[in-house]
Design goal:
With about 130 residues, this protein is mostly helical. It is built from 4 helices and 2 strands; from the N terminus they run ββαααα. It has helices at about 30-55, 60-85, 85-90, 100-130; strands spanning about 10-15, 15-25. A two-stranded antiparallel ribbon has the order 1-2. The longest helix has about 35 residues, at about 100-130.
């Protein structure tokens, strides 16, 4: 029997309580492409969010909170598009927290970067062997 394992499973704890597992394959180039495309969407949206924040009067705390909620909803939509429907609900619960989003994305980015580095190293070793011959 052949058992090919490509997925990575990361237990997700929210406030110290296990709420589920995030499973994905960081070595899959289709996943990596979607992940980097999602990051590009975030970078493109950042300037718009900053501009929207500048338009909010300093005394209008409610408008600022509404902007943060819109940012969270936009990001949750992208996360669900990448990892599957319900992922953001599992990870974040009912929280609308930009800080929690940053924690999540940093953790995933670390996994993707580590996997890409392993892939690159594997092919670099093969190249080095061929060149030494």
């Amino acid at each position: 029997m052949m058992d090919i394992r490509t997925n990575m499973t990361i237990p997700v704890n929210r406030n110290g309580v296990h709420v589920g597992d995030l499973t994905f394959d960081p070595s899959n180039t289709a996943f990596a492409r979607k992940f980097y495309e999602m990051q590009a969407v975030f970078r493109a949206s950042k300037d718009r969010y900053i501009e929207d924040a500048r338009k909010i009067p300093k005394e209008d705390g409610l408008a600022f909170v509404a902007l943060q909620e819109r940012i969270c909803k936009d990001v949750y939509h992208e996360i669900d598009g990448l990892f599957g429907d319900g992922t953001s609900a599992m990870v974040f619960g009912d929280a609308m927290s930009v800080d929690a989003i940053v924690q999540f994305l940093d953790a995933v980015a670390d996994c993707v970067s580590a996997e890409r580095a392993k892939k690159t190293a594997k092919y670099t070793r093969v190249k080095d062997k061929v060149l030494r011959q």
